[in-house]
């Protein structure tokens, strides 16, 4: 039985996702049942039920590399979200090793992306770039598609350091990646990041153009984003800042 676990996720509704993975685990043979339960643990973490997530993972004893990689990855996510980023890093690194040994490219890139998020501040940008390099070299399309998230993270690192020129370059690349992937909602977020970065660079007219285009697109599908309105208000303020 082959199941795309990503297709069962709705990160805006982790409780519903949890239920879907529990149902999958109940009806699946091993190792799929274990894989599904690791996603239950992830969904519990997103609901801040960290203890329940750890207890579930404690009961899993996978013997295959993918199972071990998934358990380590979700254990790390629980630790990080629960306030122990230092404790999470060895778990993410173990997931990288297991996934790499089994040529599970998407899982490896996911784990590398998590390593970068918990790296020491001075090492974080290099770690994001290492994950991006691995994603771009992957044969698996799902692994390559991690470039969009990784470029966004690189942009944020530059922005946090006050280098908005470098941030804009990364956000523009992330937008191009989102357009290639074809997820309209995430593409709009990437567009917003470009506009946000332009505002920080003082490119008020270009920034306003981006946000107005986003607002028009949202209105055309009957949606509204307060963050777009907030940016437009800032751009229309006397200082344009």
From TrEMBL:
SUPFAM superfamilies assigned to the protein according to its UniProt record, in alphabetical order: TPR-like
UniProt KW keywords: TPR repeat
Pfam family, any one: TPR_12
Record InterPro entries: TPR-like_helical_dom_sf, TPR_rpt
Keyword hit for Transit peptide: no
Repeat region (TPR), residues: 148-181
Record's protein name: Tetratricopeptide repeat protein
Organism listed in the record: Nocardioides potassii
Upper classification of the organism: Bacteria, Bacillati, Actinomycetota, Actinomycetes, Propionibacteriales
């Amino acid at each position: 039985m082959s199941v795309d676990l990503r297709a069962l996720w709705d990160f805006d509704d982790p409780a519903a996702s949890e239920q879907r993975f529990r149902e999958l685990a109940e009806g699946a043979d091993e190792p799929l049942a274990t894989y599904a339960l690791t996603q239950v643990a992830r969904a519990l973490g997103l609901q801040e039920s960290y203890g329940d997530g750890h207890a579930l993972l404690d009961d899993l004893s996978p013997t295959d590399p993918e199972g071990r990689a998934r358990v380590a990855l979700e254990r790390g996510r629980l630790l990080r979200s629960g306030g122990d980023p230092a404790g999470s890093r060895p778990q993410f690194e173990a997931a990288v090793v297991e996934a790499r040994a089994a040529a599970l490219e998407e899982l490896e890139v996911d784990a590398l992306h998590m390593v970068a998020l918990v790296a020491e501040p001075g090492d974080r940008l290099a770690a994001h770039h290492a994950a991006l390099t691995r994603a771009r070299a992957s044969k698996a399309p799902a692994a390559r598609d991690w470039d969009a998230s990784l470029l966004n993270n690189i942009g944020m690192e530059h922005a946090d350091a006050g280098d908005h020129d470098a941030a804009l370059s990364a956000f523009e690349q992330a937008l191009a990646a989102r357009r290639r992937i074809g997820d309209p909602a995430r593409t709009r977020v990437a567009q917003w990041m470009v506009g946000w970065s332009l505002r920080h660079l003082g490119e008020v007219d270009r920034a306003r153009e981006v946000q107005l285009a986003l607002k028009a697109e949202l209105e055309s599908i009957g949606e509204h984003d307060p963050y777009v309105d907030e940016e437009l208000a800032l751009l229309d303020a006397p200082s344009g800042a």
